[in-house]
User: What shape does this take?
Amino acid sequence: MILKGWIHEIRDLGGIKFLILRNREGLYQIVLPKKKVPGEIFEKVSELNKEDVVLIECEKKESKAKDFEFEYLPSEITVLNRSETPLPLDPAEKVSAEMDTRLDNRFLDLRKRKIYSIFKIRSDLLRYAREFLLNNDFIEIHTPKIISTASEGGTDLFPVQYFEKKAYLSQSPQLYKEMMMAAGFDRVFEIAWYFRAEEHNTRRHLNESTAIDLEMAFIKDEEDVMETLENLIHHIIKNISENCKKELNEIGVEMDIPETPFKRITYDKAIEILNDRGSTIEWGEDLGTEDERILGEYMKENDIAYYFIKRFPAKKIFYIMPDGKYCRGFDLDCNGVEITSGGQRIHDHDLLVNRIREFGLNPANFEDYLKVFRYGMPPHGGFGMGIERLLMEILRLNNIRECILFPRDRNRIKP
Ligand code: AMO
Assistant: This one.
């Protein structure tokens, strides 16, 4: 048989040499007992470097080694390409490197079994999400990422020079997915890029991130959207847990499949819990990172990982349907981290114009968006779920940068 991959480790014990070969399937132990392999192959091993790319013709045998079920006796080793030495980062390293060193040499970092497994699971997460949404009559769409108007408030935009006009990178597909409700598509989703010029550099923020955005029409209220969301998450986690055992094992995480329906608490209740636990947050304020963490602890004590917070104050964001001093928006948090926000939207044109004004924004800048509310807009709602946030929580990784191939943060725009 033929094995192709990278030299992960070389061990020379004199009378016997071992090569550990690595490829995306895993690690392979190649054994070279001096007496059983041709002399030139035995000698060739001393010329090999870690991370050389090789093709090995070999015979598969059962192994007695504790880490390997099989071992391979080579009859030919061909070097397809050499690796320079020393390596800036060793994919076989036993000691973990600093995050910056890892990201500076991300292609080598990605060769690590654990890191590859994160991205294999990310790919499967998206497959199961698409599977669920397509089976539930959602249509996948793609909306512009170069936009002329802010969708989530004006502060976090990256400006772009678009010929003679000023444009921005999209913060979310919010306004477009709502337009698709007026277009009569009824149920849409987008797997999209978010670009946010947020200044802070934290373990849970990226300046370029991805999300699953969804919008659905003819809803009764935000609970219809929340039900779709909890079923989607349940489907994703159940399938990852059943079908990605090898990768979960590499990462060293066991997954709990959350029961549906997820716990719901009101914003008022969240404030009560937080004040009881020493937070100084006052009614009307946004939940900060520390508040989310405290709430996560409270839930953990009650064995709850995923929970909705609903009935936020009406000032959450302009497009969410107000309901007295509250609104029909919600967040879904997992272990103290917000992974989704969404809600029922305003579908009445005049109410929307008033809300845009109340938020200090200029309705004239939203004319393309507002127009669609004048010609038959059904009641609708949806959500945006950060893919990296979800993956980070599912795999219990402590830095969001682990969940995106080439992170963009306050200090990093390369590689
Ligand atoms: P929001 O701004 O809460 O809502 O974003 C939705 C979700 O996207 C993820 N997210 C981020 N992830 C990493 N880094 C960031 N800087 C970042 N910003 C957001 C989070 C968050 O919950 N239009 C609404 C959604 C809707 O109502 O449909 C929106 O964008 O997981």
User: Anything to note?
Assistant: Residues 152, 172, 174, 194, 196, 198, 205-206, 209, 211, 213, 338-343, 382-386, 388-389 surround aspartyl-adenosine-5'-monophosphate (CB under 6 Å). Residues 221 and 350 are 20 Å apart (CA to CA).
